[in-house]
Amino acid sequence: MKLYTAESVAAGDASVERIDVKAVHSPGEKRQPLYEKRKKIFPKRAEGRFRRFKWLVMLVTLGIYYLTPWIRWDRGPFAPDQAVLVDLASRRFYFFFIEIWPQEFIFVAGLLVMAGFGLFLLTSAVGRAWCGYACPQTVWVDLFLVVERFIEGDRNARMKLDAGPWTANKIAKRVVKHSIWIAIAIATGGAWIFYFADAPSLAFDFITGQAAFVAYSTVAILTATTYLLGGLMREQVCIYMCPWPRIQGAMLDEHSLVVTYNDWRGEPRSRHAKKAAASGQIVGDCVDCNACVAVCPMGIDIRDGQQMACITCALCIDACDGVMDKIGKERGLIAYATLDEYDANMALATAGGTSPINPTRTRKPDGGFVEGVRHFNWKILLRPRTLLYMGVWTAVGIGLVVALLSRDRLEINVLHDRNPQFVMESDGSIRNGYTVRLLNMIPEPRTIMLTLDGMPEATMKIIGISDVPGREFAIEAAPDKAMALKVYVTLPKDEAKSEASFHFIAEDRSSHERNSYSANFFVPGGKR
Questions:
Q1: At 169, which helix (H) or strand (E)?
Q2: Crossing angle of helices 384-406/105-126, nearest 10°?
Q3: Which of 158, 368, 401, 515 has the largest count of CB atoms under 10 Å?
Q4: Residue range 165-175: mean pLDDT, rounded
Q5: Among the listed ranges 111-125, 153-167, 206-220, 351-365, which one has the minimum average pLDDT value?
């Protein structure tokens, strides 16, 4: 079986190897209506600026994911020292110096809104850059491909191994590869559970078999999904499972940057451009070497035009730029370009659509581009749509920061007793009962003064604190805790003539934090 050919493509003063590869996912290909059996893709290793950028993104994202649970952050003796922690038992979320309580879910909602508008902004500006560089599926597939290439070799070697018989060498390589994949998948699931408990303690309990069942089941599920999605299914996740390829079309416009094959300068293709040019034929810059197809992790041919399967990872740009360097042509035959820019250049190459593509209309005699050819201008990113997304994203971010810096760390909530609403005592005075909930939202103990404000003749008693009536009591609040107090407010007989309202005031006089709650006082014959 012929898997790879070193057929020479003559072009200019150099020759380029033509790769024997066919696009797996082609726009004109007839597919099964529901699901089609996966056709294996063996992407060739790419080299270039976009590949280096992908390495950087993979290093940063995986580093953040795996290492973050092990970062320590000193919050004092009364709070966990893990920098990022979702403490489900205490219903807290810790992020370095920020602590989020359940009732502060608005901050989480705000971050989700920012993430959504950030994705809209990124897509409208540079297409599916999220999919091509930072999507977890892309990152883990890249990582698994690194392992695969290291064990089995580059594209040609992997294809030969896959097509060959099951020898001891093939079995050994497959066992080693899949073992490393499973180890990576286990590390992925293990890192996830460390976000929900103290990482060192949980790691010890997990290894020694003392962790909770939910920890083992979570790791098992994430191990299976990581191994299956990143190692076995790969591009099928993007094509069949992910909704974003179908949604992102609404986020693009004629000014969005997408990976584009500039056929206005590449067509007509010729594998023997030098010979064709010598015979007077019109030839484009594309030498039909298939390098762009060979490096594509999605198995598409970008020369077929924009496709749902394209994740704009730009590896085809690196491959094509390398070929252009070899044959002495200007880079950018495949490049990030806008539809508006592409249409203008295509109109130039086809004389306004009245003739077939003639790349000589876009070239000077010395090989450079004519003045009418349009190139990328960064100002296209600053258009109303992207500015609107950026404005909303910035406004939500500023609002969250302001709310975060100005939020109260001391809260009081009051619930009036419903049955009975009031009690008449033997001396004729009226008593109302309340459940007062104080929230000390800092990881330090402190003294909170609980005071009655209003109804000057009223007094209160706090069960467990003092049996002597008064209007102000000192409450010792535990760090980072909510405490419930049973409070009885009593009004003398002569004053209890009609319903009234007053305030419970909670105050930390050392930090000058203060919060209040308006409560009602019910009397016989009052409105309910």
A1: helix 168-193
A2: 160
A3: 158
A4: 95
A5: 351-365
**How far is 50 from 317, CA to CA, in rounded Å?**
8
* Secondary structure in 3-state letters for 298-322: CCCCHHHCCCCCCCCCCHHHHHHHH
Task: Return the residue matching tokens 């209506």.
Answer: 33
Distance CA 23, CA 294 (A): 8
| DSSP three-state, residue 467 | strand
Q: Which residue has the tokens 């049973």?
A: 486
The amino acid that residue 405 corresponds to is L
The conformation of residue 17, written as its DSSP 8-state character, comes to: E
Residues 85-112 have pLDDT tens digits of: 998 888 889 999 888 988 888 899 999 9
- What tokens does 438 get? 């104080």
Residue 312 and residue 127 in contact, taking contact as beta carbons nearer than 8 Å: yes
- The SS3 of residue 371 is coil
Instruction: Say how many residues make up the chain.
Output: 528
Token pair, residue 466, equals 């003092």
Q: State residue 461 phi and psi, 5-degree precision.
A: -125, 140
Cβ(128)–Cβ(313) below 8 Å: no
Q: Model confidence over 444-501: pLDDT tens digits?
A: 899 999 999 989 889 999 998 888 899 999 999 999 888 999 999 999 888 877 888 8
Residue 472 CB: number of other CB atoms within 10 A? 12
Residue 410 and residue 448 in contact, taking contact as beta carbons nearer than 8 Å: yes
Q: If you write DSSP's letter for every residue of 471-512 in order, what string do you get?
A: SEEEEEEPTTEEEEEEEEEEE-TTTTTS-EEEEEEEEETTTT
The Cα–Cα gap between 502 and 453 comes to 6
Nearest C-alpha neighbor of 508 from the set 407, 422, 414, 411:
411
Average pLDDT, the chain: 89
DSSP string, 225-271: HHIIIIIIITHHIIIII-SHHHHGGGG--TTS-EEEE-HHHHPSP-T
- Pairwise CA distance, residues 90 & 59, whole Å: 33
d(CA 458, CA 490): 6
Three-state secondary-structure class, residue 519: strand
Q: Which of 138, 232, 220, 212 is nearest to 185 (CA)?
A: 220
Q: Token pair for residue 121?
A: 């902004």
**Close Cβ partners of 452 (under 8 Å, ≥ 6 residues apart):** 458, 459, 460, 471, 472, 489, 502, 503, 504, 505
441, 99 contact by CB (below 8 A): yes
| Nearest by Cα to 54 from 337, 292, 230, 314 | 314
Phi, psi for 490 (deg, rounded to 5): -120, 135
Identify the DSSP state of 392.
H
CA distance readout (Å), 261 to 282, 332, 334: 19, 9, 4
